[in-house]
Amino acid sequence: MVIAILIISAIFLVGLICGVIIWLIFRRRREAISKKPAIETSRVHTLPFRWYYIILPLVFLFLSIILSAYFYHLLPTEVAYHFKLDGTPDKWLSREMIIVWVLIPHLLFTIMAGALIWGITKLGKFFGQIETTWIKLEKVISFMGNLLALPQLIVFFAMLDIFSYNSYQIHLMPMWIFLLIVLGLATIALVVFLAFIVSRKMQHPRRTSSD
Predict the structure, then answer these.
(1) 128 φ/ψ sector (left φ>0, alpha ψ -120 to 50, else beta)
(2) 69 or 132, higher pLDDT
(3) Computed from CA positions of residues 89, 84, 167, 65, in that sequence, does the dihedral angle turn out positive or negative?
(4) Is 146 inside any structural domain?
(5) CA distance 7 to 180
(6) How many structural domains compose the chain?
(7) pLDDT digits (tens, 9 = 90+) for 19-53
(8) Residue 86 falls within a domain, yes or no?
(9) Treating both helix axes as pointing N-terminal to C-terminal, what angle do 95-127 and 149-168 enclose, rounded to 10 degrees?
(10) pLDDT of residue 9
(11) 139/137 Cα distance (integer angstroms)
């Protein structure tokens, strides 16, 4: 439970940081546009929606559908979905309900990612964008859209573990170990992303001063 809370906190922190970064980029671009001559501002272009902004949520969604179809006939009519610390099951659901409950989170996270990115692109059209900036907004949007694949990864592992146990009586690994791995990877991704942002920010004044 503690690890799950830490992961949720990390996801919230990453989302908050990305939101602040996007707000700063929009503000900087808005200020840059206001300082451009009328001829240059006429070249302002909008940011289109790209499917690769949410490629990871889509991949997990399609994989979950494929695996659910594959394991459906291998599962018993009553499927164990909750386990004690020693790995023995203590709660069961029907096979059909299990399939529904493992697919719904992937669908919801994919819709959330698509809606988030669509909203950001619409917001970009409102503020306007220019090509010269210290960081490409597309990279930030892609990071945020694919960030929702992190909770999908946890759901995907839980789905695989349920399918594996009920089909072959084998657990993949304890959930707490997997959560620690995910938390570590999320922390590394956050550090790398922030380091990239800081490095680009530090390089920008040197480039502009030499122009």
Answers:
(1) left
(2) 69
(3) positive
(4) yes
(5) 9
(6) 1
(7) 655 565 556 655 555 555 544 444 445 577 888 88
(8) yes
(9) 170
(10) 57
(11) 5
